[in-house]
Amino acid sequence: MLVGSADIDELKKNAGTISQFTAGDIVFEDTTCFQLVAEMDNTAREALLPSALHPTIPASMVLQVFNVRTSVWGAFLLSLIRVSCRSGVRARGFTLGAMVTTEIAQKGLEGVLGLGTRLAVIDMQEAYAETRISVLFSGTQVLEIQALDPEPLSTSDLQFTGTLNLANTPNGLRLVQVECIPQLTRVERLQSTFNSFQGEYWGSPLLLPTQVVTSTISRGDFLLPAIRFVCKPDELAFTGTESVK
């Protein structure tokens, strides 16, 4: 059975902190989400995941960029890189790196979802036949994507897997399970190309996308229910999952 081999002490350097679990849901309203799945070199397969998680074959990463126009934290843009994996039998994405555009959103994402982020300049430019995305961190371009030829899809064709954020919680260091329930009004498939990607700024130089599998852009509202479960990062989900009180 394949499991992750990453050093948890290294991973937790970027962990967020949840001082108290909250009962309320979070809604990203009037939001655009760009999502891209890319295969990675297999040397990154186990090396980027804690031992509680199973890598996928082939190794793959998921990039998500949210342009949130209305939320409890105001308007902001969020970009995150997740490593595809399984927790038990469920498909998940383990967050390795994330960047956000406002301090208010940074504090909220960490305190409620356990998502540790860094402040950056994120730009998403949408046109009729093209979407361009760029991320600047401390003056360095760490991501640039060009996405062309949008093709309409049914809103039911797009699926979002749950996210696991490593965070310090009242239960200890845990993988925080964040679900995303989209209510979409529009979905399009795109042909995307990385013009620039600096994996070391997103959590590891092992993040090397080798081939884009698929990319989409969607619009609508995204419901993030209150956290219900967390997992121990060094124990498989069958025995290491805990409910949140």
How is the secondary structure organized here?
Elements: H1 8-11, E1 16-17, E2 26-40, E3 54-55, E4 60-70, E5 76-87, E6 90-100, H2 103-113, E7 118-119, E8 121-126, E9 130-137, E10 140-153, E11 162-169, E12 172-178, E13 181-197, E14 209-224, E15 229-231, H3 237-240, E16 241-243
Parallel strand pairs: 1-11, 6-7, 6-11
Antiparallel strand pairs: 2-4, 2-14, 3-5, 4-5, 5-6, 8-9, 9-10, 10-13, 11-12, 12-15, 13-14, 15-16
InterPro entries: ADC_dom_sf
CATH architecture: Beta Barrel
| Series of H and E elements | HEEEEEEHEEEEEEEEEHE
Which stretches are low in confidence, meaning pLDDT under 50 for 5 or more residues running? Answer: none
Q: In oligomeric terms, what are we looking at?
A: single chain
Compute the average pLDDT. 96
- Helix run count: 3
Main sheet overview: 16 strands, mixed
CATH superfamily: Acetoacetate decarboxylase-like
Content-based structural category: mainly beta
> How many domain regions?
1
Find the count of extended strands (DSSP E, 2+ residues).
Answer: 16
InterPro entries: ADC_dom_sf
Which key terms come to mind for this protein?
single chain, 245 residues, Acetoacetate decarboxylase-like, 16-stranded mixed beta sheet, 16 strands, ADC_dom_sf
